[in-house]
């Protein structure tokens, strides 16, 4: 999935103002330049890409709603529109996705056959097959048309959509394993789900059960239209903030932590752009109906919980809600059932997340650092909550909790404010890795880039995590 900064016109990413103390007229001209040379072109390009995918979502929605189609043609239409949307985004690389889906289905079929001998292994086998296929593709063992996936820019482009396909395949496998009466979806159901137009490009991950709601043909009404338009408008706003406004705010100061926060904020805004866009496309395709069409929603990210975080744990949960659910359901809980508990299960979950995000050293470093920081913060705040009998856990207490010192207690406010500041600094420290260099975004980031950024910030985030662990051991 291309990073949103790619839409910035060539040469504009280096634009700056010669005189930071310019008068009001110069500042106004600079803002006009920002509007003319960045905001309008980038939003226009994003709207074209977004509009193409949305067009296929609406074609599917209208066809499934108004035509008297039985289930099998609906599933085939879902896959066909999904492939059309993928082609509009990735060109000839589209062949990669049905190939991956087919490998996954073959692995599921073999694993399902093994259940005759009492082995329920569809989930692990499908995951292993996907990993082997991805590594083989990345190393250039498989070629589709004249496309070699050893090209980092191509790999970086398809990585996001590939992650969604893998998540769906693995979830089908574990769902079949968890229910003795469950049957493997037939071919039309499977490909309709894996390549569903509403979430195959931008996401989000949806369960097979969620996908089957398209067969209920929820009504097309005013609430649905408003919900889709709202998410689309929020996506464009976040894209404008990410691609253009943060270029302007980067001139507000030269303090390295301000620049780090600004770069990280731009990255978070680009994430919100994808999140709101995925909300819009999945609802446009007919998923997210509640109460017989009275409400439509499919929340992916909650920016308010991330920009004003109570803890890093809260950031992880609300960063990508569907993915958090997937990791909890198909990695964390199964690992606990196999005897892993506490930190090993959490570490395995972050390793799984890193693998899903691709063979990228920087992502591994960031995600594993995030896992370490969230775990240390969690155990420290649990202990402090017990010592002070206060509501200072990583997750907010329920309305009527047993703590003596509640939210407005002085002790509670002091500790929660301190952890809020630490969370904000961690957001800057971890998010600064994903800067706006177009060449780096096209090919991906390496570990050298990561450590250079962290060295510039004196490895502060890791020192904070170590300090919290020392306080935990000494308290």
Name its key features.
single chain; 475 residues; mainly alpha; two-stranded antiparallel ribbon; 4 strands; globular; palmitoleoyltransferase activity
Number of helical segments with 4 or more residues? 18
**Strands ordered across the widest β-sheet:** 1-2
Listing every helix as H and every strand as E from the N terminus to the C terminus, the arrangement reads: HHHHEEHHHHHEEHHHHHHHHH
- Structural class estimated from helices and strands: mainly alpha
- Oligomer type: single chain
What is the residue-mean pLDDT, rounded to a whole number?
81
Number of strands: 4
Rg calc:
23 Å
Sheet-strand content, in percent, reads under 5%
Helix content: 55-70%
Uncertain segments: 1-29, 141-149
Shape: globular
Give the biggest sheet. 2 strands, antiparallel
Q: In whole angstroms, how far apart are the ends?
A: 45 Å
Notes on the structure:
Its EC number is 2.3.1.250. This is Protein-serine O-palmitoleoyltransferase porcupine. It catalyses: [Wnt protein]-L-serine + (9Z)-hexadecenoyl-CoA = [Wnt protein]-O-(9Z)-hexadecenoyl-L-serine + CoA. This protein has about 475 residues and is an all-alpha fold. Among the domains are: about 150 residues, no CATH class; about 170 residues, no CATH class. About 65% of the residues lie in helices and about 0% in strands. It is built from 18 helices and 4 strands. The strands form 2 sheets. Strands 1-2 form a two-stranded antiparallel sheet. A two-stranded antiparallel ribbon has the order 3-4. Strand 1 and strand 2 form a beta hairpin. Helix 3 runs antiparallel to helix 4. It is globular and about 65 Å long. The N terminus is likely disordered.
